[in-house]
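Subject: Sanity check before I submit

Could someone independently write out the structure tokens for this chain? I want to compare against mine line by line before I put it in a report. The sequence has 91 residues.
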Amino acid sequence: MAEKQRIKYNSIKAALANARVKNKDLAAYLNVTAQLVSKWVTNTNQPSIQMFYKIAGSLNVDVRTLLEPNDLKGDRPDLPIEHPAPRKKTD
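---
Independent answer below. Compare away.
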């Protein structure tokens, strides 16, 4: 029987690796459990849109990079974003 391929809905794992941040450190920063971060990283569960923004802010990356599927083989088609959403100003 063919093995079912898991779809990767986010790139949190790659962003954590690039930032050299551990799951438990992100969990502590976001005040969530390390188990929840692990579920996001493995694409078992997905964070809310608000949480995606918090994750992006904590890793100093654009939120759009987290929302791109992460294909480790590199066969992902490039999807240009012509009109990016404006960023919220924080005081």
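---
OP: Matches mine. For the report I'm noting this point. The chain is about 45% helix and 0% strand.
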